[in-house]
Structures are given as structure tokens and as C-alpha cells.
Amino acid sequence: MAGGKNPWGSGGSSSGDGGDKDEPESSKPKGPKNPWLPPGSGGDRRGPNIEDIFKSRGPEGPRRTGGPGGPGFRMPQRPGGKSWFPVAVAGIVTLGLLATSVHLIGPQQEAVVKTLGNYTRKMTPGLNFSLPFPIETVDVEDVQGVRIERVPGSNQQVKLILTGDQNLVDLSFIVRWNISDLEDFKFRLVDPVETVNDVAEAAMRAAVAETELDETFSGQGRAAIEQEVRERMQRTLDGYQAGVRVLGVEIEKADPPSDVVEAFRDVQVAEQQADAARNKARGEAQQVLAQAQGEAEAFDKVYEQYRLAPEVTRQRLYYETMERVLSKTPKTVVETNNVTPYLPLPEIRARAKQGTQANTVTTQEGQ
After folding, report:
1. Neighbours of 228 (CB within 10 A)
2. Long-range pairs for 30-37: beta carbons < 8 A, 24 or more residues apart
3. pLDDT-wise least confident of 64-68, 321-325, 333-337
4. CA atoms of 261 and 169, how far apart (whole Å)
5. Which end of the chain is more exposed for a tag (fewer CB within 10 A), N or C?
6. How far is Cα 92 from Cα 105, in angstroms, rounded to an integer?
7. 3 state SS of 217
8. pLDDT per residue over 234-244, tens digit each?
9. What single-letter DSSP state applies at residue 258?
10. pLDDT band at 278 (very low <50, low <70, confident <90, very high)
11. Which residue has the higher pLDDT, 28 or 202?
12. From CA 193, how far away is CA 277, in angstroms rounded?
């Protein structure tokens, strides 16, 4: 600027400013002034040059200090001045390789080994070795543990199945199974657990369709259905080569549909009443039949005696029959000469009894 001071200071010995001519050369700053310093801080402070910026930097990068004058931090070095970093990286890689190459298989477990994604072999319980990941991968499974699948997934869900007599039953059950062949279990089916569920439901529907509704509620009928379902499932899964062993099937719930439960209860009550009436009729029929059989046996015995002595037996039968008939009918005795009149004691007792009953009825009506 003409006629003014340069805010950046003098850059050399020659200048057009008049105010700097009287100052000695030694007191003048050797570099430009820092314009960002506050006023009055002194004009002899210069901005950092390239040497100052890289002064605290070394071959390993900028040195960090804990404070003014603090010691610089440097990575520990091996004897000979080399860094420990490559050794640490090599150790971490070695541990990773060992962790993916050594496998301890439990007593109830087995494992399959895949080399570059293809099945190669199977590992048995104990200490086993493989190539490191990702060259070989190892899948470990519990082959002896019992697994449980519930159909449907919750007891709150409704699973309606049609019975053999065209009725619907709300049925839920569980399936217990484990792995019989790990190789088939892993590679024959896309989703073996879902396959077990589907096969179980299909087998249950087929078994219930051959059974009447009442049998699904009874204990004996349930046991037969469970056995049939287990056998059907095992045959189907063996055909799929699923590597699954079905251990058992258990029916948890077998109820009528919730919409018709009241009508179903009424039907059950009516059936129970019908069964009671049938049982009563059978009991009475058995009593009548037993009585008839007893009378027939008695007649056979009398006939045997009649064959031995016809006249005596005939007269005896006549007397017994007359005694049986006359004992239940009123009698009238006609007077004859020199005969004491008959006193009708039975008729008097009968009339007295009838009078007592009539008095009792009248008393009850009056009350």
C-alpha cells in the first residue's frame, strides 16, 4: 500500500515504508508477522514454518507427549530394533487356525465335515482335527438327545381333524424323536424339522380318519392311534431317508370343537341315559330268563317223578295246585246238619286291613 504500513510486515531489507528505516536491522523480524495474533501481543512472533511442523515427527509418525516436556510414547521393540507388531499378528492368526482346526466332540454328539462346501467325512465323539476355516467347516449336532415337536405349536391353537364317523375333533399331540443318521439328516432334506412336523400331522389325520369319535376320547382308542401314528411316521421318514428315529407320539388333547361343545355335551348325556336304560333292560331280561330256566328245571324234575309214579304224582300236583289257588281266594262254607258253622277269619282280617288303610288316607287328606 502506498503511504501506509504493510500489515504483513517487511519481507526484506529494502522497503518503501518510512517508518522502518530508523529501526536497526538486527531488531527486525526475519519473517512475516502473524496477523491472527491479538493486538499488543508483540510483533516479533512468527508463524510456524515447515521445519517447526515436522520437528516433533519421526520415522514412526508424530510423537505424542503426555504434556509440556513429557516423554514421547513409542511401541516396544524387539532386540535388534524390530517391531513386535508382525509377531503379534502371526500369533493371532495361529490361534485362529488352531481354534478352527481342533474339535472336541461330546459323547452324545457327532459332526459332519464339509471341504469347500462339499461333505467329506463324519466325526465321532472324542478329539478330532480338520483343516482350518474356511477350507473345512464342521457342523456339530446332538444325535442322542430327545427332541420334542408339538402339533400344533401351542395348545391354544385349534387343529380340527375329521374322524371315521364324519365328526370333527380338536386334537393336539407331541412327537418325540432324535437323529439316527447325521449325514442323511443334514443333506437329504432342506428342512428336516419342518418335514417331521408335516409327516406327523399327515400320519395323525390318516389314523384318526380310520377311527370313530368315541374311540379318540377313550384311553384304549388313544393308545391305538398313537401306535399307528408312530409306525406311519417311521415308514414315511425312512422312505425319505431323513435320518430321523421316531421315539413316541402322545396325544395331549382330544376335545370336540369349541363351537359345538354344548351340543356335544347334550349328546353325551343322552347317550349315557340310553346306555343306562339298555343296561337296566338287559338286567331285567336276565332275571326273567333265569327264573324261566329255574322253572324249566323244576318241571323236568317233576316229570321224572311222574314217570316213576304217575298216579301219586298226579294227585300230589292236584293238591298243591288247589292249595296254591285257594290260599289266595275268599271261601264260603255252607252249613249242613250236625256241622259247626265256619268262622270266616281270613275275610275279617282282610276287611279290617282295608278299613285301616281307608282311615289312614282320610287322615292324611284332612291334614
Report:
1. 18
2. 32/8, 33/7, 33/8, 33/9, 35/7, 35/8
3. 64-68
4. 10
5. C
6. 24
7. helix
8. 999 999 999 99
9. G
10. very high
11. 202
12. 51
| 356 CB-near residues (< 8 Å, 6+ apart) | none
Closest CA to 183 of 115, 241, 105: 241
Residue-level pLDDT at 207: 94
* Structure confidence at residue 174 (pLDDT): 95
Which residue in 310, 315, 318, 345 sits closest to 331, CA to CA?
A: 345
- Cα–Cα distance, 82 to 360 (Å, whole number): 131
Percent of the chain topping pLDDT 90: 32
Q: Grid coordinates 321224572 are at which residue?
A: 304
Beta-carbon count within 10 A of 123 CB: 20
Of 181, 172, 237, nearest in space to 204 by CA: 172
**What's the full length of the chain, in residues?**
367
Q: Could you tell me the pTM of the whole model? A: 0.53
| Residue 57: predicted pLDDT | 55
φ, ψ at 174 (rounded to 5°): -125, 150
Backbone angles phi, psi at 237, to 5 degrees: -65, -35
| C-alpha span between 327 and 229 (Å, rounded) | 72
Please check whether residue 161 is in contact with residue 207, taking contact to mean a CB–CB distance below 8 angstroms: no
Collapsed DSSP state (helix, strand, coil) of residue 20: coil
126: left (phi over 0), alpha (psi -120 to 50) or beta: left
Give the model confidence (pLDDT) of 133-152 as tens digits: 888 889 999 999 999 999 98
